[in-house]
Design brief:
Order of helices and strands: HHHHHHHHHHH
Number of strands: 0
Shape: globular
Mean pLDDT: 84
Largest sheet: none
Distance between the termini: 27 Å
Radius of gyration: 16 Å
Length: 251
């Protein structure tokens, strides 16, 4: 791959991960299809994308830590509950046609967009909910299921984590996005990258440009999120979930 192609990969990664860091998910909507369009088969593109998006978590973590937006109990719950699902999903998808799962995920993602849209006050203010042992257990079980979707299909699963944190734990959108980017970007994507790297082929020559773009895009997106009000983040979240749903359903 020549320098121009590497530059194209870098710019794609910056744009995809900027949107993802701003809305709490959706990098796979842009980056994964383009990798396939550039000639990679789905399993190879997915493995390459998984490894590259770990840098999204690094960039976002760096910015959100400076603002004190991270709830370490929530982060630990997301990581511990979701990581086994991520590994299971990554192994599962290698031997299963992904189209049926994409349609199901598309329908669920569409419901996310509609639910948030018809709940105008949702996520605009933090109201702590379900901070009991039972609440954490239920929250963790749902995160396990979302983690499985994350491991199997890269497009949009972080959006589920964001809305679940808003709905179940009562976080405002800005704080929910921060937890998602750190725990999913670093923890889940890291676990998925290790699993994919061990059992699948990776286009390693593309990785440096994608990682650098993910790092820059993650930092810039987190910075934009911090400076943007919850209402705008909520609207952007609803738009991105709608677009991700259409993309998954369309194929």
């Amino acid at each position: 791959m020549d320098y121009i192609q590497q530059l194209i990969l870098f710019l794609i990664a910056v744009v995809a991960n900027w949107f993802s860091a701003l809305a709490g998910g959706g990098a796979g909507l842009i980056q994964l299809p383009i990798l396939i369009f550039l000639g990679l088969p789905f399993p190879l593109a997915l493995a390459t994308h998984k490894i590259a998006t770990v840098a999204l978590g690094v960039g976002a973590t760096t910015r959100h830590m400076r603002e004190g937006h991270l709830d370490w109990r929530i982060l630990l719950l997301i990581f511990l509950a979701g990581t086994p699902g991520v590994v299971g999903g990554a192994l599962f998808i290698l031997d299963v046609p992904a189209r049926t799962a994409e349609i199901a995920l598309g329908i669920l993602t569409l419901l996310l967009s509609l639910y948030s849209w018809f709940k105008p006050e949702l996520g605009l203010k933090t109201n702590h909910h379900h901070r009991t042992a039972f609440g954490y257990v239920v929250g963790g079980l749902v995160l396990l299921l979302i983690g499985f979707a994350n491991g199997a299909l890269s497009a949009g699963s972080g959006l589920f984590v964001t809305l679940w944190l808003v709905y179940w734990f009562g976080l405002e959108y800005r704080l929910a996005v921060a937890q998602t980017l750190v725990a999913v970007g670093l923890g889940w994507n890291g676990a998925g990258a290790i699993t994919m790297g061990a059992v699948a082929t990776v286009q390693w020559s593309w990785i440096p440009a994608l990682i650098l773009g993910s790092l820059v895009g993650g930092y810039l997106g987190a910075n934009t999120s911090i400076k943007t009000g919850n209402e705008r983040i909520k609207r952007l979240y609803e738009i991105i979930t709608l677009v991700v749903a259409i993309k998954l359903l369309w194929g």
